[in-house]
Amino acid sequence: MNRSKKLNFYSKFSKSVSAVKIAFLLLGVLVSFSGCEKITAPMLPDTTAPGPEQLTVMTYNVYVGGSVDTVLSVENLLQVPTEVGNVYNSIIASDFPGRAATIASSIKTYQPHLIGLQEISLIRTQTPGDRIAGGTVPAEEVVIDFLQVLMDALRTEGLDYKVAAQVQNIDVEMPMFAETSIVDARLTDSDVILARGDVAVSRPVTVNYTSALTIEMLALEIPRGYTAVDATVNGVTYRFVNTHLEAFSPELRVAQTQELVDAFSDETLPIIVLGDFNTRAPHGLAYQTLLSAGYVDVWQMGSEGTGNTCCQDGNLLNAVSAHSVRIDQIFVRNLKLPVSIMTYTVGDKPSDRLVSGLWPSDHAGVIAHLVFE
Fold it and tell me: What angle do CA 61, 204, 269 make, to 5 degrees?
């Protein structure tokens, strides 16, 4: 297929999309999904049907379940066991199995060809712990494996997805107070690409950025990274990239973005780069770095509404959605102009909350459905 037309600027795309959107609105086919409105099942794109070339992608930060800010900001090492215990209890209380079931339900609704996931966590413990005494034996007792839980939830929904690539970021173990003993708690964080069963994938790459946050008090480095695969959908091969950029340092976030841009500067395949960029659209410096490199934000061009994706309260129990910034994004480059594009946020409506009142994540998921000639 001829891919000579490139998405190199906003205006051409915006006009084309606007015309298509008006046509769809007149026909009553397209409904905005960025606020409190919800698309009913007959209006959803059928990504398995024959016809025009289609591509549906999704990004979702599933949230570890507790804020690590209090641990990273301790001023005295004696505070660490208490703060680690608080985070651990928050993670358990956040009920990832229940949240994963809701996330899997959203995936079933749209059945994206490719999914980028962030904060896929593995929680392990060791009892009694040895870290407080300077021990180095790693904690290996699995408390919860987010990836396994989510894959099980997808299978329960009757879905066929496979892990196409996975990059390990931080792997940290610290002591915590637990009743009458001291237990070591270990968090391993990963970003993952899932591919639908009918999508052929190859050339997986997993990279940690050289730019990484260091917490001197804890002698701790916090790596971030990206995953990438070639994915063939309807006979067209795309380079699909998933990342999670630094949250606590704007300077490091921009440096990581530049590493990402440089890594794919010579790529000739159509590129989809998505994830939790921790940069606010449209004025964040990392966001602008991507635009300057020729990447196009599909939400900016193709949707009404804000598309805000962050952040619910740390305990996920706020009654009204607290999303106020758009930091989860989907960018494209080297990509032929679609004849239509539909983008949605998921997991951010009252009906998405669990019976317990928990939101599925502190972030919303973002979906882009592209239809080509």
Answer: 95
Distance in angstroms (rounded) separating the CA atoms of residues 48 and 55: 10
| Tokens (6 digits) for 265 | 């500067």
- Asked if residue 29 lies in contact with residue 313, where contact means CB atoms within 8 angstroms, the answer is no
Question: Which pair of structure tokens corresponds to residue 326?
Answer: 């758009």
Number of CB atoms found within 10 A of residue 65's CB: 27
The pLDDT of residue 109 is 96
Closest CA to 200 of 275, 114, 270, 274: 114
Residue 349: which of 3, 13, 32, 33 has the closest Cα?
A: 33
**183 C-beta neighbours (distance < 10 Å), count:** 22
Are 302 and 256 a contacting pair, CB within 8 Å? Answer: no
Integer Cα distance of 332 and 203 in angstroms: 19
Cα separation, 183 vs 64, in Å, equals: 19
Alpha carbon distance 243, 140 (integer Å)? 27
208 CB-near residues (< 8 Å, 6+ apart): 167, 169, 223, 224, 225
d(CA 308, CA 321): 10
Q: Give the predicted TM-score (pTM) of the model.
A: 0.87
Angle ∠(312,317,323) on CA atoms, nearest 5: 20
- Give dist(CA 22, CA 39) in Å, integer: 17
Tokens of 180: 């009458």
Task: State pLDDT tens for residues 55-75.
Answer: 999 999 999 999 988 899 888
d(CA 243, CA 227): 7
What span, in angstroms and rounded, lies between the C-alpha atoms of 58 and 209?
23
Tokens 């990402």: give the residue.
Answer: 260
Amino acid code (one letter) for 23 = A
For residue 164, the one-letter residue type is: A
